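Submission checklist for the structure archive. All mandatory fields must be present; incomplete records are returned to the submitter.

[x] Identifier: GDP-mannose 4,6-dehydratase
[x] Organism: Qipengyuania polymorpha
[x] Residue count: 375
[x] Sequence attached
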Amino acid sequence: PPPATPDLPKRLAEAYRFRKTRRNGLSARRALITGVTGQDGSYLARLLLEKGYEVHGIKRRSSSFNTGRIEDIYEDPHDPNPSMHLHFGDVTDATNIIRVMQEVQPHEVYNLAAQSHVQVSFETPEYTANADALGALRLLEAIRILKLEGHTRYFQASTSEMFGMVQEIPQTETTPFYPRSPYAVAKLYAHWITVNYREAYNMHASCGIMFNHESPVRGETFVTRKITRAAAAIKLGRQDKLYLGNLDAKRDWGHAKEYARGMWMMLQQDMPGDYVLATGVTISVREFTQWVFEHAGFELEWRGTGEDEKAYCKATGRCLVEIDPRYFRPTEVDFLLGDASKAKEKLGWEASTPVRELAREMYQSDLAEAEAGAA
Ligand code: NDP
Ligand code: GDR
């Protein structure tokens, strides 16, 4: 008779063994990326193309051009053998997701699509829940409906925002969650539904609990990029000052390119699992601002407190940074610091770009972009 408690890990390892067989005449190792036009999607698509994958991305229809970040890797669809394909779609549209999934029959799905701005989620909570929470469910269900569980591995972009009001320092895979925004609550649903589908249906489904990661192609309204762009514009005399919200918030900021590699590594494991990706260093928005302005040649002096705090250029006395309370959030996440020991031990993944170097790279890129714009 079978043992009362079956040997689950062995059974799962068997179920997840990568199927190398051809399916419906499709042969290459195929990956489907939702959110391919975003920061992480663009790094991940590049990485997978380098590794020889056939990459399929889902992009939204937009009234203006939204493929700027992947322009250089997107091939002409008339090419007889393109390795990068774009499909119109939206994670709020289940029929579309099922159709694309059926067409592509991917070996790996990376769900990066999201309304990813925390502050915007307070203004669009229902849409954020639809895209960020139910979007994950739609993808997992599509895999199940099409009976691709034994063939398709799934990655969910979970977030350190789920820790919210932190219950433990540093935060690990076992730290309790306490989300503080509609975005974080939606992502918590997506996280747990991924865990549930893994346990209920033996899916190879993994979550990367990723702390903030940035790059020169970071969205312009996230604080790091907002700061590096403003410093470059101020340097060139095109902007007077920068308005920010909470300067005391502390974040664990890493480089997006390294986090994309971590996502891929999770799906190469025999067993699925959840992993924190973080640098293990935390700094405040104020410190990040200070460093970026230093790169730009402005030494800052902070005066005042709370909403009246301002930063002045030490050399000229000119005010360069002011607080605008409109950027304060109804509920804030004050402090995040991740411990990525599990990822280091099991995946061999480690963040390697110091945040100061990241700030410099982003500033230099924005300066070059601003100078080119002026030419
Ligand atoms: P971005 O905001 O840069 O990219 C989000 C992507 O999702 C874009 O391609 C966007 O398309 C797409 N998208 C948004 N809504 C939909 C929708 N309804 N249907 C289909 N696509 C949609 O985010 P990042 O690249 O920074 O982050 C990638 C993922 O990782 C996100 O899920 C984010 O929540 C998560 N994450 C990010 C972290 C970070 O620090 N960057 C940390 C932890 C988690 P479009 O270009 O048309 O807007
Ligand atoms: P976050 O990133 O909310 O951590 O979410 P963001 O850069 O928006 O904010 C970081 C911190 O900076 C404070 N802040 C400001 N933020 C913005 N955007 N604009 C400002 O002017 C400003 N001034 C101060 C914020 O209050 C906050 O404390 C990011 C996103 O990529 C999520 O999708 C992802 O899940 C998390 O990181 C991990």
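[x] Structure attached
Curator remark: The mean pLDDT is 93. The first helix runs from residue 8 to 16.
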